[in-house]
Please model this.
Amino acid sequence: MPETLWAAYTPDDQQPWDLKRAVHLHRRAAFAGTWDELHRDLKDGPEKAVSRLLNGTANLHAAKEFDKTSTLLFDAAVTQGEIGRLKAGWFYRFLLGPHPLHEKLTLLWHDHFATANGKVDDPGLMRRQNETLRTHAAGKFAPLLNAAVREPATLLYLDAQTNRKGHANENLARELMELFTVGVGHYTEADVKEAARALTGWSVDDGQFVELAERHDIGEKTVLGAKAKFDGAQLVDLLLKQPATADRLVKKLVRQFFSDTGVSADAAKQLADGLRERELDVGWAVETILKSRLFFADANLRNRVLMPVEYVVGSARVLELFDPAPSTLAMADWSARMGQDVFDPPNVGGWPTGKKWVHSRSLIARANYATALVTGPDSGRTVAYDPAGQAKRHGFGATPADVLTYHHRLLFGTDPPADTRNRLEPLPLPKLTTALLASPEAQLG
Amino acid sequence: MATAARTGGAVVRAMRTAAADATDRELLERFTLGDEAAFAALVARHGGLVQGVCRRVLPTVQDAEDATQAVFLVLAKKAAVGRWQQSIANWLYTTARRIAAKANRSARRRTAREARPAPPASPSALDQMTGREAFAALDAELDRLPAGYREPLVLCHLQGLTRDEAAARLGVPTGTLKTRLERGRKRLADALTRRGVVLGAGLLAVAATSPAGASPPALTASVLAAVHGSPSAAAVALAQGVDMTGFLTRAKLLAVAGLVAVGFGLAGVAADPPKMDKPKADAKAEPKTAATERTITGTVVGADGKPVAGARVWLCESGGLIAATRPAPEHAATTDDGGRYAIIRKGDGGRAWAMVAATKDGFGPGFDFAKATPGDDTALRCSLALVADDVPIAGRVLDLQGKPVAGASVWPVTLYRTDGATLVAWEKAARRSTKEAAVGFNTFFPRSLRLVDGPLAGVGVVKTDKDGRFTFAGLGRDRLVTLRVSAPGVATTDFDAVTRAMTAVTTPADRLESQYIPRTYHGATFDLTVEPSQPFVGVVTDKETGQPVPGVVVRARSGWQGGVQAVSDASGKYKLDGLRTGEQELIAIPPIDQPYHLREFTAGRRANELPVTADLELYRGVWVSGTVTDKATGKPVTASLSYRPDGFNGEEDRIPGYSPRGLHDPSWYVTDTAGQFRVLAVPGKGFVFVRAYREYLSADQVDWQGELKDTAPRPYVASSPVEIASNWSAIAGVTADAGKVYALTVDAGATVKAKITDADGQPLSGATVTQRTNFSVFEVSRVDAADVTFERVNPKRPRLVLVLHPEKHLGAMVRADATAIKLTATGTATGRLLGEGGKPLANIPIEIRYTLDKDIGWRTTELYPEVTTDAAGRFVVPNLIPGVRYELRWPRVAPKKANAYHQFEVPGGGEKHLGDVSEKTDGE
Model:
């Protein structure tokens, strides 16, 4: 079936390939584009730009020996038993990794299969889960689901080990249906009970997934109308086959790339159908989305609130704070203060989206973070950000007007309107930059 | 210096009374609010239950104890988050079953892998800087004893042989063995005292490879040691003499540091010979004894065994040698053409000992303790071997952003020596199990050289280059070294590396043994990541006058963070850098001769690298003065002292951050040559604790003094925090603002010679004597002849002694001041054990326990081996002494909990029929 609503984007007069769209692409599919990345992509056209992001070749500022260093940082965090360092290690990946799209998808699945170290209390297992999510992040959903749901961290978080024959704990079964696959409204309480029976025996021993036969209820179960002696694996297969699963995946991806406004019901249905025909190939869906006209439509520009992680990492990126980078320990902490503490989502439902990110406490944190980045010390840098120097490096003058133009184009892809100029140009340059970064507009991406 | 069993029992009982009415849930709530005594009460209440469950599942007592600890660790973790019933017994039971089952699988897998069973957990490695030093000191001093004195100690105390068995092993009469044991112990105690380590039953018991079966008080103590993260009243009071093994978590390092501080008089960062801080008033501090000349001689050979000329010989840690007690290694000699050297030093009259090292370019250093020449205290000998130095350490230091840290200082803290084959074995053990590597550490690495105080022939500080890289040579191949990294803005970090090509080992985590945290050992080439630090700055002033106070040490309160500390300067300013980010507990320690209390405070912010300002106001205290003399001779005694406010005083709560000296820091007051002292106190009631450096009766056996004059001693002192009386030689109640001078005495007690006779009055040799000594709660020894000597007897409160001749079935319980001990016929108890529903319990092992003192508690010793019921549930227990309270103890059959017990006495010789004995439970 032709996914006509998802036809590819080709630039035209109504929707030219301009800086605005380049910024948009990098905000949604990565963390933010630096000036040189944006202009390279502007020059090379949208197809190449999207390709680079899909292939992990877009980042001009990736760290050398990235894999080795990232492994070193994660290993050290695990052997020290320090979850704070694991969080810092993930921010190292966000900021300096070559494949930001992949990292964003990993974060998306972390939210989807929400698991909190506050309960699991084991950085080693949290790291294991993180790597599993990363491995399958852009593949087909079946291997991802099967791997994620067997991760010791997931099982411990959802008390799977206490679920046994004659003594049910329904947490895993419920979240498997409500959150991981079909979603609310597509199952009944009876289904949950029966599904729990199918999952009996799934447990964790010595940090490994085990299936304990003596705890498994081998009787016949009825789940979503199907009768069989389901075990865990078969239950997962059954859920994967439910049409509602594809719909739910589409919802998730749409919220990431289209914000809460979403797409039309038809478009969603088309995408879901496409997924169903392709064994729930998430990679295909992401590629289709990023290449589509819908994605680049005016209606989809600058309408999504940046998640704390996106705001924290994106701000550091646009200011090109790579060397020295802000303290990754501090970045993780700032993100937590804004409401997104990686490896510690608030509950099984993961984090909120959209407007729910903006309340007074988190806005204050965002403003303080912007100040910290620009001034230096409170973000772990000993050097202050030099707005004029940066503008000059990219061919601008050093006047407030020039500096404002440079940063405005960098953040939004457009020139600053008059009222913005009036408001910000009188300020000293560091304050100007901070004010821009902390402005309400800059919370959208 | 009693073991935890005796003192623990009393403390537990006291706590039990206080907590008797609280439900489990209430106790848990109190615990989550910081009341650790509440947790102790829970452990005391349910420890027996949990241990019983574990013992029925697991093959060895040690496994059961470990599993029991694990159960309570889980309880501690879940205390705040669980929804608890009024009684947690059910939860404990289920959790114990689960954990024991898991432990059993591990145990079975383990024994399946190795043909022999796993060695019993020998508590060896404590924390790197505290326990290891204590055990290193013990090892070192044991090693230096002449063999004739060392062997009995090793056989009896470390390997648990009886006197008879040891004598037979050595081929000497038992009387000779006993004499050597006493003398060896005395020498060992003296030697350790000079190093600031107090030898007590605790240290030896902990060092033993086969501890006697634990009874609940010791179990409680070991559980609390495992669980508690801070040396609170409960932990300190109960944890002495406990099996502490392995790599403890950062939080649990607190417990260790606290324990070692109280029990061993050694804690915190420095393991230097004790800093004898003297009151400034007295300038003539050193004891005036004739300085004797001492020599240290030896040869230095290379790896091929051939003498090495021109090797530099260093005096490292040493004692009793004037001008050689500086902390940094001192280049004291150079070898001649024959590889020989001689070092001559004046001694200060005290016992001489030294760690000697030899270096030469191109070699790795050799090092060892010098040994005394038998019969000649002035001549020490030390021969050393240099090793190949062909494997340099090459590392790179990165920050959390992956960037190299340039200009960081790297230097060695400790160097561990072993041989190549052992290193291979150690690597295998480390890859297998955290616990195995931890528990066997001192066996794999029997010798260590402290290098943190100063360079040894070029093995000093090295700086990282612009790529964050550094190289370390001169350590010798096949060694383990702990290195420290420090740089501005970086948290000071220690890490371990071996001078051998090896991929990094991270010991595998074990959820069951979660008190051991995994450690990483790098090979000779590695990358290391370090965290940012958070500097603390401020000014220290006198609260009253506002004047600056210089010389105040500011550091992290507990654990040990790389020895990171700051000292306030002349204007009271300090800057403390190198601690990790985040809120943490710090402490300010004024100089000991200044009238200011220590001050704990909290400072720091999460993930913050900006300097944190913490200005400190110090509060003045009140001096309490006195003297310490020997009760018998009246002569002044060299002693160290501590002060604690009375537990009900409350004054210390009005002093912000008040912390008693010696709790979180290794400092204590000392008497001067005239036996005078002064300690800093809070207004109102408090206690002064005295520890003398020779063997005196411990303060739980002699009357207390000062305001508590003639008070009968108790096992623990209601001070804040609680103190264990047996840790001290004298205890006095004081009132701080009364202006009194307290004349205190330490009491060596009397020596009583007694004769053992049988019922007819004939001298009888070969009896066993069981008594409490300064070293052991229930010390059992066999008497060769009919004469026995009791030392350190308090005539006012003589202890009880059990004398038993098992072969002749004669025995008696007497007081230690008895000169004639007439043994009478022992009794035999018989009976039948019944279980639930009156069913006889067949083939059940019964422990025979007895008590000498209601405060000591019940004990099983080799005096009464386990008895098993026959197929009809019948039992026979011989050799029971009239007048002694006995207790039979046996495990209840599942699914009920705890042990069952039955107390009884025998009136005289002959049979006592106990009849059908069924269950009462204990520990419920």
Summary: Strands of chain A lie at 202-205, 208-211, 221-223, 226-228. Chain A touches chain B through 38 residues (CB under 8 Å).
